[in-house]
Amino acid sequence: MRTHLAFFVTLSAGLAAVTAQESPRPAEKPPATTTTPTLEELARDVEAAHHPDGPVSPIEAFRCSLELRLTDRTAENAGQVGLDVAFLLWREEGRKKARPLIRYTVRTGEQPIERGRDRNGPWQLQRGAPVGLDSGQFDTDLEQCNRHTNLARQMLRFLSPGEVLRDMKDAVVTRTEFRIDRATRVPCWTIRGLSTRFPLLRSAGEDATVQLEVHVDAASHRLIGVDAAPIVDGKPVAAQGERILLEELRARDGVLVPHRLVHLFVDERGVPRPQTVASFTKLELRPELGPADFDRQR
After folding, report:
1. pLDDT tens figures, 17-30
2. What is the CATH classification number for the domain harbouring 46?
3. Per the domain annotation, does 19 fall within a domain?
4. Host domain of residue 246
5. Pairing of strands 113-118, 99-107
6. 179 and 185 in contact (C-beta within 8 Å)?
7. Mean pLDDT, residues 241-246 taken together
8. pLDDT at residue number 205
9. Is residue 3 part of a domain?
């Protein structure tokens, strides 16, 4: 436990060096009550805040267009690309674990790139013909495909944040002030625990246990941020941690949708550094999609 606490103390201290994010908002006054809620009570409050019209059926598919801006100042290929994405959490008959399927186009100034993940694994079109990305010859493309897949999976998880809380193990709820940037602190309920169902961008691929800190605005019960780090040999690895900020939350089809996801990656000193900003320009929830829609050869 001391190791886990030390990781998050280092992370919080490092925030002093983070560049201020766009559109800061003043800290909100805490609610009148300071009684610490249980995990289930908080999950219900978060669910009600994010589903303002009442309970909704699970969302397992979406289509979207987004602009992905690389904000890492140390990156060689900083800039912005557009993505057109179709995503389905496919529940195959006879299997307990759902599989993520994705098909997307990367819109660049050059030739568009078409990639995906179908029932047989990740693929990409090369000269008009699909090739498998898990052959060992396309490591960079495979890394990008895994990262974009996990970005879509994170988006899906944020549409049901109450379930994110319920999936956490050994969870502890505390009262905190979440520091978004140098000028903005938000009174929050912070839930710290372990999860095996939260995808990370940095270690995209197979799921592993991660240490989560989920930050819930104490006044509105909206999810505003998540700190996550992989667990290796029973300890969180600070230098592989990441922070996700949920911004521009707006209701769509009875669900509060973050139209902007800001990702920061924690460096070797424990400082979260801006990495990417994903801005969703078009979004369709629950489109009619089946596994055949993601096949590399259609």
Report:
1. 444 444 445 555 55
2. 2.50.20.10
3. no
4. 34-294
5. antiparallel
6. yes
7. 97
8. 63
9. no
